[in-house]
Amino acid sequence: MNDEHFLRRAYRVALQARARGDRPFGAVVVEGDEILVEGGSKQGSSGGGPLAHSEMVALNLLLHTGIARERLARATIYSSGEPCAMCAAAIFYSGIGRVVYGLPAEAIAAARNAQPHTAGLGLSCRQVLQAAAAPIEVVGPLLEDEGAIAHEGYWVPGAA
């Protein structure tokens, strides 16, 4: 299996999050060909609050498994959207060694129509992870057209 396979899985998790009334984001953590955990955003009807991004949900699930740190270094997190600065920092602190994302932050901002309450810190995932003491590979954007599907019509005022 390859990056596209697991990124498509993250896109499916994003669609599931949207279907249950949460924001359309998904993340999957993989070691080799084994899915360790998946997490969809819990921002919305799940009531997870502003920290319940899909990456944070997946990382919390992962860390509760007690997985060994050396396995995390070999793991990849697949995110339907480019991780924000908060999530990128959490990925670093989790020990995960690789990030693959679909939609870039710019495409997500455009889909949101630049709503002020959704503005980020202005730091890309790469910028945050380049400041890390240990190198973390970042791959993306990938399969953007497929990733945009979960966002179609979602950010329209009154639609979500």
pLDDT below 50 for ≥5 consecutive residues: which ranges? none
Q: Tell me the distance between the termini.
A: 34 Å
Roughly what percent helix?
25-40%
- Residue-averaged pLDDT: 92
Q: Say what oligomer this is.
A: single chain
User: Radius of gyration from the CA trace?
Assistant: 14 Å
Gross geometry: globular
What does this structure look like?
With 160 residues, the protein is α/β, with parallel strands linked by helices. Helix content is 38%, strand content 18%. It contains seven helices and five strands, in the order αββααβαβααβα. The protein has helices at 3-19, 54-63, 69-73, 85-94, 105-111, 125-130, 144-148; strands at 26-31, 34-40, 75-81, 98-103, 137-139. A five-stranded mixed sheet has the order 2-1-3-4-5, with helices on both faces. Strand 1 (26-31) and strand 2 (34-40) form a beta hairpin. Helix 2 runs parallel beside helix 4. The radius of gyration is 14 Å and the shape is globular. The mean pLDDT is 92.
